[in-house]
Design a protein that fits this description.
CATH architecture of the largest domain: 3-Layer(aba) Sandwich
Number of strands: 11
Order of helices and strands: EEEEEHEEHEHEHHEHEH
Radius of gyration: 17 Å
Bound molecules: flavin-adenine dinucleotide
Number of domains: 2
Distance between the termini: 26 Å
CATH topology of the largest domain: Rossmann fold
Structural class: alpha/beta
Number of helices: 7
Helix content: 10-25%
Length: about 240
């Protein structure tokens, strides 16, 4: 398939149309195709490959509006102990910078349901933003519990609270401690799908609490580099 095919997974030449700091250490990039053509469609939970340099490719979840075929949006946390991908995004990508992307792929698709619980930790909020918009549009019952180190480090907090009110529970660790996973997940609930994205310890803790839940209830997305831990989780994607 070529670029002319909207379902293409091939690389696309883009440029940064806008760059905005959306939390401490987090920038949101708005990307537009340099040829001005409509971008391939995507579903909530999808991510892009950003080609950031020789053999430096990193995946970033789409956090914008799937109905907008003009631009893609990603939000990137600077990873202090990383191998350079997120630092490149923060230090090099400015408005007007050209970069190549690999088109959307989805390992974390939102299944149809009447009820959802979304659990996000830190930058793991990115795929969840379009997911809750889709759940809302579909008329589903949903709730988001969003944890992070501090309120200032948590992207999209104000937008989410303004748009969705008390269905969004914001839990900065320095104000309220860790998420109450026993309270949230201690009792299996038929018909409720759980979508969780965040740091490895959160995924492991949620996985443990959901061990006795119905099969297929839990969906996890791991942002960490591929290694044995991710392999362990791959069956839940
Ligand atoms: C599907 C998917 C979606 C993602 N979406 C987002 C997003 O929306 N926003 C976002 O900010 N990030 C996202 N990420 C993470 C992103 O792809 C990068 O991993 C992140 O930006 C860090 O890149 P880096 O090169 O700076 O650090 P990396 O080199 O990738 O390192 C990240 C961390 O892993 C550790 N590490 C690296 N290699 C190893 C190894 N072999 N063994 C053990 N530890 C290791 C590092 O010490 C560091 O703590 C996503 C990842 C995936 C897989």
């Amino acid at each position: 398939m070529g670029r002319s095919d909207p379902a293409s997974l091939h690389d696309i030449d883009m440029e940064v149309a806008d760059r905005e700091t959306v939390a401490d250490g987090v920038v949101r990039l708005t990307l537009r195709a340099t040829d001005g053509k409509p971008l391939p469609e995507w579903e909530p939970g999808a991510h892009l490959d950003l080609h950031l340099g020789d053999e430096l490719v990193r995946e970033y979840s789409l956090c914008g509006d799937p109905g907008d075929r003009e631009v893609y949006q990603v939000a990137v946390l600077r990873e202090q102990s990383g191998r350079g991908g997120s630092a490149h995004v923060h230090d090099v990508l400015e408005t007007g910078t050209a970069l190549r992307i690999g088109g959307p792929r989805n390992n974390f698709a939102l299944a149809d349901a009447q009820r959802y619980l979304f659990v996000a930790g830190g930058i793991g909020i990115t795929p969840v933003v379009p997911m809750i918009a889709a759940a809302e549009k579909a008329g589903a019952e949903w709730r988001l519990v969003y944890g992070g180190r501090s309120r200032a480090s948590m992207a999209f907090v104000d937008d989410l609270a303004e748009r969705y009110g008390d269905r969004v529970e914001v839990v900065p660790q320095d104000e309220h401690g860790l998420l109450d996973l026993d309270g949230l997940l201690g009792t299996p609930q038929d018909g409720l799908l759980v979508y969780c994205c965040g740091p490895e310890p959160l995924l492991a803790a949620v996985e443990q609490r959901c061990a006795s839940w119905p099969g297929g209830a839990l969906h996890l997305e791991c942002f960490s580099p591929k290694r044995s831990f991710q392999n362990d989780l791959s069956s839940f994607h």
